[in-house]
Write a structure and sequence with these properties.
Pathway: tRNA modification; tRNA-queuosine biosynthesis. The structure is a single chain. With 373 residues, the protein is an alpha+beta fold. It has one domain (7-278). The protein has helices at 7-23, 37-48, 57-60, 68-71, 90-98, 114-133, 149-155, 202-206, 224-230, 240-243, 252-256, 282-286, 290-296, 306-320, 325-333, 340-372, and strands at residues 28-32, 77-84, 102-105, 138-141, 160-161, 167-168, 176-183, 212-214, 217-218, 246-248, 280-281. Strands 1-2-7-4 form a 4-stranded antiparallel sheet, with helices on both faces. It has a 3-stranded mixed sheet with strand order 10-3-11. A two-stranded antiparallel ribbon has the order 5-6.
Length: 373
């Protein structure tokens, strides 16, 4: 029988939920109501501008995304949690991005797929709640359903949505995952977080493809994360040179954010790099056959893009490196690939390498002529 009978009991339970969350490895737990009217307007304007690109699922679920009770009937509160995932210091990431032959993978994807780990912890949290309340209505989510997780986390006091659209915490930066428990328990809510971006525009300025078209407005169709992960077809040619050596996602807007000086390295072993994915050469990962790809991305979020898009992305990155005979040789070896998508990007990369070779020859001839004079 439930021991939760009145408002005082609910206040006690809310305190306990936060403590249990910390014990389960979350860095913060907050509680929000379900009023997402402002976020709903922002989402609709974003969709109206077609900024979602091919992510049709953003349309499909209608108002379920912004009205939690439509997704999970009876929901009156959302328990929002965050978990740090930063696997290495920022210097190491800057070094990898600056090395043109390094394969840069967004740091959230270097370790075990976070969905399963966080969902498991949320279930344990729900189990603890149920011991006190008896059976109650709930459903746990980890980026797995139409949920406005950032807006909910902002309402729950976990941080504010920055100009790059990521959630920022004053004491922890933005290198963290989010998860939610929708519940019918009328728990006391936390005050929302205040915005502290001020006049800073560093994330807008650093974005390699200028995807942050205005503060708080991201055109996903230009975003490197969308282009390398969500987009199934051909990457627009005008954007390929801007992708650099990023083969899965992009962290630039987080790396430049001044609030991330407060970010802490993760204590979760599962979020640390597997198979040296934070220090791989482009030629190394381009040489993987499909079985090697599947083996070395087992349990990783990377596997979701599949082998074909993996090769597509690396071909673009190889087209962006300075002229290198070994890159040309590796690209030519992929011209016989069964996928037209892969071959298209390989041909583009070879054309880029050819142009760079000619530029290098012209430059050498110019220097030689100037020296002889």
């Amino acid at each position: 029988m439930s021991s939760i009978r009145n408002d005082e009991d609910l206040r006690w339970l809310a305190v306990q939920i936060k403590q249990w969350g910390l014990e389960l490895g979350f860095q913060q737990v907050g509680i929000a109501d379900t009023d997402l009217e402002q976020a709903e307007r922002h989402l609709q304007a974003w969709l109206d501008d077609d900024f979602h690109g091919e992510m049709d699922y953003m349309h499909r679920h209608g108002l379920k995304r912004s009205r939690p009770a439509l997704l999970q009937p009876g929901t009156v509160r959302i328990i929002s949690v965050r978990m740090d995932y930063l696997p290495e210091p920022s210097d190491a990431m800057h070094k990898a991005l600056a090395g043109p032959v390094e394969a840069y993978i967004s740091r959230y994807a270097l370790g075990r797929d976070y969905h399963k780990l966080i969902r498991s912890r949320l279930q344990k949290l729900a189990d603890k709640i149920q011991v006190e309340t008896g059976p109650f209505g709930y459903r746990a989510f980890v980026d797995s359903a139409p949920v406005l997780e950032k807006a909910l986390a902002e309402k729950a006091g976990l941080g504010w949505i920055g100009k790059h659209s990521n959630l920022i915490n004053r004491k922890a930066g933005s290198w963290f995952f989010l998860g939610e428990i929708y519940t019918d328990l009328p728990l006391p809510i936390d005050p929302p977080a205040a915005m502290h971006c001020g006049s800073c525009a560093a994330c807008l300025d650093i974005c390699p493809t200028r995807a942050i078209v205005a503060p708080f407005r991201v055109d996903a169709r230009r975003c490197v994360s969308y282009l390398t992960i969500e987009l199934h077809g051909s990457i627009p040619e005008t954007l390929r040179p801007l992708i650099g050596n990023r083969i899965y996602g992009c962290d630039d807007c987080q790396l430049i954010c001044p609030w991330n000086r407060f970010a802490k390295l993760t204590a979760e072993n599962d979020f640390r790099p597997r198979h040296r994915l934070n220090a791989r050469h482009l030629l190394d990962v381009f040489a993987w056959d499909e079985q090697t790809f599947l083996t070395r991305t087992e349990g990783s979020a990377i596997r979701r893009i599949g082998y074909e898009r993996w090769l597509r992305n690396i071909a673009v990155a190889l087209g962006n490196v300075p002229h290198a005979p070994k890159a040309v040789e590796a690209l030519k070896a992929r011209l016989g690939h069964s996928s037209e998508l892969v071959k298209e990007h390989v041909r583009w990369a070879l054309d880029r390498q050819s142009a760079k070779r000619e530029e290098l020859a012209c430059s050498s001839a110019f220097v030689k002529g100037a020296t002889s004079d």
